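On clarity, I found the account of how folds are encoded harder to follow than it need be. For illustration, here is how one protein appears when written out as sequence plus structure tokens.
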Amino acid sequence: MRDGRVIIVGAGIGGLTSALLLAARGLNVTVLERAASPGGKMRLVNDGDYAMDAGPTVFTLKRIFAEIFEEAGLNFDALVPCTKANILARHAWGPDERLDLFADLDASAQAIGEFAGAREADGFRAFCREAARVWRTVERPVVRAPRANLLRMIAGAGLKGLPDLLATSPFENLWHALGRHFSDPRLRQLFGRYATYCGSSPFLAPATLMLIAHVEQDGVWMIEGGMHRLAQTFAQEAARKGANFHYNAHVQTIDMQESGARVELSDGRVFEADAVIFNGDANALAQGFVGESIRDAAPALSAKERSLSAITWTCAVETSGFPLVRHNVFFSPDYGAEFKAIAQESIDYDPTVYICAQDRGDEDHALGKRERLLILVNAPANGDRNNYNSEEIAACAAKTFRRLETCGLKITQPPSPETITTPRGFNRLFPATGGALYGRPTHGWQATFKRPGVRSQIPRLYLTGGSVNPGPGVPMAAMSGMTAAHCLMDDLISR
């Protein structure tokens, strides 16, 4: 087993998880990453002298990472210092309409009661109970499975467990389900936004996605040094276990043969191994981006089947007015119009704006100096066929910052054009996606079962990352990397 050679293509969190676990088991692991550093979407960018996270910013399910590190013989808390956030997020609809959600469920219920009335607070508690039940029902057969399979889920649940499966509300959309708990449209909008964590529309996503509320209630953590530190630590510890990392390594072809795998880089270098774990978007395989011979490894995804993209500004600016915390959401007045425009591939709408204030925690006093912000609005995933011109981007920026000003946030100097990443930019960073950040959207009850599993259709070629089961998000991608490593080990043992 110690001679098993594995190539991992891509150093996103899924690939890094596989690298750490396989190297800890003594396999010969080589990681090929086209960027100059690890992390994938968990990337670091600069605005002048300020370095900041430009990808995922919400860190949840810390216990999954502790489990991964423990399997590798490491202590997660010692290597990745984290602080638990007291305020999960601050939400605003206008200058006088603000609502905080807290790590403490009772504190959130009290805040909701003061914001919208006692009935809405009761609805919130019922919603949280339902979200927790959904999570318990799907964690093992979906999150921790190589692939979600409906028949196996039903068989595994048995007659006694069937009511729990049906209670996940797979045939009801999230927006409708929220109407059972909340009559205040602002709360429906707040909890409907969780669908965007999977790159999906709350009007099309199944009610099952309410489980995200439970995941956040379980804890949102702030990593000392930012999210990119998580990727750096994974890479560092995998290297200490013996994994070899090659950066600026652009994989041109992957060829799976009976005798083994052959991976060729664009500079002509060739690597050979017994197995390959692919940590890119699964659609890149189906589209032939890394060779014609492995197109059948995953099903192709059409442009209409893509999840959301985004327009982001990563900038260091001075702010005033609105009391920012780490995570902040500024809601548009018409959520339906926003998603209708995106479906029509337009960015001409009044957007909901997310801001991660990376120099803040729960304290919301003015910093009095430049601070690092990631500002994000949803956008269509059409970056491979539409390059929004400067006038369109400027109009989107104007609407974005007007939304912030409406809620009381003033930014002294608008971010420069160099701080912007558009769907075209995301498509360049992550080929074959059109800029989609989450693989296939979770639309309809069948969406989960359409995601590729970690075992591809080609023997000894495994998949990991947000485009495969169990789905997008840092902890889910890490789970796919853990499952891929386990499947690979099992398959090597059985050979």
Remarks:
- The chain has 16 helices and 22 strands.
- The first helix runs from residue 13 to 24.
